[in-house]
Amino acid sequence: MKRHVSFIAIFMLLCLALTGCGSKAIEEGTTYLEDGNYKKAVTKFKEAVDKGQDTGEAYRGIGMAKWELGEYEAALSAFQSALDNGAEKTAALYNFLGSCELKLDNPKEALNYYNLGQECDDASKELMQEMKYNEIVAYEELGKWENARTKLKEYVKDYPDDERGTKEAEFLETQ
Predict the structure, then answer these.
(1) Topology of domain 1-88, CATH
(2) Which of 63, 104, 158, 172 could disulfide-link 78, Cβ–Cβ 3.0 to 4.6 Å?
(3) How many CA atoms lie less than 13 Å away from 100 in the CB half-sphere?
(4) Cα–Cα distance for residue pair 45/95, rounded to 1 Å
(5) pLDDT tens profile 61-119
(6) In CATH, what number does 94-175 get?
(7) How far is CA 137 from CA 5, 22, 59, 175, in A?
(8) Where do you find CATH 1.25.40.10 in the chain?
(9) What would the 3-class secondary structure string for the chain be?
């Protein structure tokens, strides 16, 4: 997931530079995010929110920093605020939302976000694979073993070299 944070942070910075609508606080927050200084990143992104500057992107940045800090409830709230404030609905954002919900033991909500993410056109192959795997985990956490098995068969067919799929298949045989 850390790789996705770096990619999204760079993407945010490029979008802001290309559109010319970015604030200095968001640019600084993005730099802190890339450098792994998550607390300073949150401070800068909150500064942008307080000034009403690119609030959707600022909340997305807060969410990514909170995710990296292991503050999943705060990350979830920030990502939801990002959507509420006009952030682009991307596969990565939905994956973060789903992953927060999984961490917070809300697999049903996680499934909803993973499905929304898989419907997005902007998902990389790696992100799509991650969301499909996370979907299997969510079904397992719900105790919906048949759904998990069905999704796992599709997953193994699509990603035969992924060791996680093999391990999940072994686990599901015991359920």
Answers:
(1) 1.25.40
(2) 63
(3) 24
(4) 21
(5) 999 999 999 999 999 999 999 999 999 999 999 999 999 999 999 999 999 999 999 99
(6) 1.25.40
(7) 21, 37, 27, 13
(8) 1-88
(9) CHHHHHHHHHHHHHHHHHHCCCCHHHHHHHHHHHHCCHHHHHHHHHHHHHCCCCHHHHHHHHHHHHHHCCCHHHHHHHHHHHHHCCCCCCHHHHHHHHHHHHHCCCHHHHHHHHHHHHHCCCCCHHHHHHHHHHHHHHHHHHCCHHHHHHHHHHHHHHCCCCHHHHHHHHHHHCC
pTM of the predicted structure, to 2 decimals: 0.83
